[in-house]
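Request: Have a read of the protein record below and say how the chain folds.
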Amino acid sequence: MTRLPLAVSALCAALVLGGCNYLPKVYKLDIQQGNVVTQEMVDKLKPGMTRAQVRYVLGTPLVQDAFHQNRWDYFYSLKKGTDGVAETRRLTLIFKDDVLQNVQGDVATRQDEPAPAPAADKPAS
């Protein structure tokens, strides 16, 4: 007789604890760090732009190395709270005599992309 209430209590506890698996998950925020650099912003960069013009387009660089005065680095990281996957981007600008010379990094300028192949002329029918 004393085993029946104990068995029922154990069964109820197992059902209640098993139901905890289906509780909604805790909401986690997306974490953004660094400079947001879009493709449109990179497309505005042209060789020969001054530092002030580049700063106007992209904003203040995240890293200004004291040992490399002619190099600006822009970093961006986005970690999604839903799945924890991180997206990172890096953009490095090289200046010579305070004029933009080179753009390197994960975000390519449209000038760096190959031009589309010209359409073949169709013969007149």
In short: The CA atoms of residues 18 and 62 lie 48 Å apart. The radius of gyration is 28 Å. Helices lie at 3-19, 39-43, 51-58.
